[in-house]
Amino acid sequence: MSSNKLLGPRAQRSGSVPGVELHAGGEGAEIAAKSREVIDGLKKLYTNKLKPLEKRFDFGDFHSPLLSDSDFEAKPQVLMIGQYSVGKTSFIEYLLGRPFPGQRVGPEPTTDRFVAVMHGDEERTVPGNAACVAPDLPYGGLSMFGTAFLNKFEVAQLPAPVLEQLTIVDTPGILSGEKQRIARGYDFTQVARWFAERSDLILLLFDAHKLDISDEFQRVIEVLQGQNDKVRCVLNKADQVDQQRLLRVYGALMWSLGKVLKTPEVMRVYLGSFWSQPRQQHGEDGTPEALFDAEERDLLDELRALPQHAAVRKVNELVKRARLAKVHACLLGHLRDKMPAVFGMEKKQRELIENMADNFREVQRKYHLPPGDFPPLDAFVRQCADRKFTKFPSLKSRELQDIDDMLTKDIPALMASLPKHSKVGVAGVEGSDGAPNNNPFAAAMSAPGGRLQWEEELLGRKAEYDAIFSSLTLDSTGRAAGGSCMAPLQKQATSTVSQGVLRAIWDLADQSNAGSLDVDEFAVAMHLCTLAKEGQPIPAELPASLVPPSSSKEQPQMGNSPLIGTIRRPTPVT
């Protein structure tokens, strides 16, 4: 057996990965044009209806800075977070197929700054102070963190094909000591939150040899709670342990995450060794090559799909922002109306702050707002402590009407322009004849099963269903309850479909039996409603081709670990 065959396909990737051009014209050009149309519409809606409300009620001071045109036009962004020496920078180099300007790799804490790796015609680095005032870069909001942070931020530009459709953010290794944390000179947790809010995918990297979660890492994970739908875990350097130890490491990671994460859902964990070197071997049956290859394909497939749904994500983020801004305006207007005209203002303000939970409930009842749209109570109280409630503006009914019109009329009208499903994505994904075998994205399209094949079963309407889902009221875990899903499902099925069939469709789509649907399960329900409307029979069991990847590939409890099937059984004693 040759050494190349023994090492598997990973041995072929020890060199650099040359770029492959994006598909031009045809379907790709049409998708780009439709996405541009949607993004332009979102910019107009934000500028004309939402931004005036945010300015009047100081939304940027309480929650998130005002958006600029570059925020809407930004490419999909991937954020890498992890403790030092877990392989974040090496992962980026592996994706790009080459080093990026300013890159430093080593076992010690090497990356000491945030680095936004972007596409450029030539290699160069842009210092943070210059990047935050550049009109073509979406980093103007970082100025709120001051010069101490901007001195630790830079933009690295290089002509890599992957970066034509993606931006990747490298972060400093999270430290375990309190002294090192204080010595940063800026609030690492809040900076990470700023990037997370603007990222399409957040990768939490763990080293198979270092599974400890430091206090600072735990704080970072906690501020990501509102972004759960975008967070994935990567157990990197998994090839450095044999199968038996890998099973133990996987169990330890799930146990550690269970103590930190405040959600009942199991987070997706990818296993592998994401760098350009061949995998380490542990004997003939000691390295689960098939498992690593499958996990690698799944992760790269998810990265590849990001540009396809960029417009949908921007719609989703603007809807979330509009809901929060509406609640924020109602809260401040309510607090302003509670203040006396002349005497006892300070006493009344202290009373309102002490009873803020009651004010939340009163505003919720008065304006019929869902509780999931309200900001965290403690954070809101801290923001209010240094402000005078008498300076808050009064709420105008016209402002609320504008937001409601945007959510119920304008954005649904834009949904009709959302691009349909396409196989056009990140450069080099489709692997045409002559494409280099060592391209890390080359295998993504050829993988059997996976998200792309599942989306094809939905007849190219996944983006449309995602847009409808984003307009629903979601809970803190990103799921929509039955009451929220009822209207769009009934509308999709029309009156020709009986309630019994709709009940069967719900049971098929609710894979987790949670009484609510996530974005993929909702798409399955909408697809089944379409089939029922056309007179096609509804299956007794959901076909494997329609099972959402979020359900079929979700990391289960340890009793059903995907690693168990790869463990080498002991040879029986004779």
What would you note in describing this structure?
With 574 residues, the chain is of the alpha/beta class. Among the domains are: 250 residues, Rossmann fold, CATH 3.40.50.300; 110 residues, EF-hand (Recoverin, domain 1). The protein contains 23 helices and ten strands. Helix 19 packs across helix 22 and helix 21 packs antiparallel against helix 22. The chain is globular. The two termini are 30 Å apart. The N terminus and C terminus are likely disordered.
Outline the fold blueprint.
Elements: H1 3-7, H2 26-56, H3 59-62, H4 69-73, E1 77-82, H5 88-96, E2 114-119, E3 124-127, H6 128-131, H7 146-150, E4 153-158, E5 167-170, H8 178-182, H9 188-197, E6 201-207, H10 215-223, E7 231-236, H11 243-260, E8 269-271, H12 289-305, H13 310-338, H14 345-354, H15 356-367, H16 377-385, H17 397-415, H18 451-457, H19 462-470, E9 480-481, H20 482-493, H21 499-509, E10 516-517, H22 519-533, H23 549-552
Parallel strand pairs: 1-5, 1-6, 2-4, 6-7, 7-8
Antiparallel strand pairs: 2-5, 3-4, 9-10
